[in-house]
Amino acid sequence: MRRLLIQSSVLAFAVALIVSVFALSSAEAKDPKPCISKSFKYKKVEAACKEGGQKAAKKLMKAIVKQAKAKGDKNASECLGCHEDLKKYKNTANAVKWLKPYVE
Description:
68% of the residues lie in helices and 0% in strands. It is an all-alpha fold.
């Protein structure tokens, strides 16, 4: 009897955990984490941030990095070429200039 009680408690906990993970996932999908920056030099970056938040902006930037690598552009071929860090994503002094060929 005690074993059955423990098994049902574990099962209830597992179900609750799974339900909460799905709830968080769907909440994030509806309300994406906003971009840190609030001012943009290029409409393509601004549109990505407005439409899909950080996730969309990262997708755009990863595509740009891929293009830059294919062209042999060493300035824009990695995240830290244009950003001082990957927490606040502060731009380097040349970031706007280096990004221009890929967003216009």
